[in-house]
Amino acid sequence: MEVRIGRRVSRGMLPLMALHTFSEYYRSDRKPPITAGLIAANTLIYLRPSFLESILPSIDEVWFNPYLILKRKDLKRFFLSAFYHISEPHLVYNMLSLLWKGMQLETAMGSAEFASMVAALLALSQGVTLMLSRSLLLLFDYERAYYNEYAVGFSGVLFAMKVVLNSQAHDEYTYVHGVIVPSRYAAWAELFLIQMFVPGVSFLGHLGGILAGLLYLRLRGGYSGSDPLTPLIGGLIGVLNWPFKFLKKLFRFRRGRISGRGTVGRDQRRRTAQSGAWRCQICTYDNPGLLSLCEMCGARRSENSSTPHVWHRESRGLSAEEVRRLRVERFGRR
User: Fold this and answer.
1) May I ask the CATH class of domain 3-243?
2) pLDDT in tens, 205-245
3) Cα(100)–Cα(286) distance, rounded to whole angstroms?
4) Where do the domains of the chain lie?
5) CA distances (Å), 268 to each of 166, 274, 295, in order?
6) Catalytic residues
């Protein structure tokens, strides 16, 4: 099945990736915005919609090539090459990996610190890869193999993120393409397994990512001050999130189980008291203040009570099992 998206034709992997991403975010209590933004940016650059066509450089202008970067001082290739992908499987594999790693790291670190870390890992991974290729040229004359290599993709940053993610997993094990390895060495195992079974990948780019992750951990461990980028990025995220917070407060979005005109649960007590509603002591269902019998189980509200939250237990002699049966009959579920 082919689906035309933007200027490219998707063979079905991109819609599946979008569905999986939406599902993961819907199930998650926290929705990491930086991870979502990175996935969206990489995907838009790959799709190249018409409104971005005049802004985005072509992939031929951003290939990561050590020779061209050093000769022309081309910072565009140095930074932008990480956000370009050569095929749909290449993009989807990297973005699913980013989704899994990013949601864990951003939830644990906070969005501002996570964004600062990604920026640092991007610069470090590209810089280490550049130094490795230059060193191999000077020491072993490996010019064709690495110094003139063309590469794109977010893989280097993902390998660095994997190192950071597994840095505290001392006694844990994980699966790497079906092989059980200690989590601390998962990035190294994946490096060699991918190199063995996936032709055409950039070994030096992936190795640079691993070394960048180790370097980042060493630098962060030896630096006691606050990251200067984190407050700046935190302020920017706060500004971007303000409209959403305003709309949420304006419309008072609430999550809960709503049934009929009442609400089941304990989270609505304050609102219940203010609205004059009363809560059934038998089944905890919130009823409108005008009713004298519970809509859920039929329990009677106390008439000599001066507050809406005091009841007596006369409820037609219903047992707990009978209350459950009434619920089933009313709502048709178990």
Assistant:
1) mainly alpha
2) 999 999 999 999 998 876 655 555 565 555 555 655 556 55
3) 40
4) 3-243, 258-331
5) 41, 10, 17
6) 155, 206
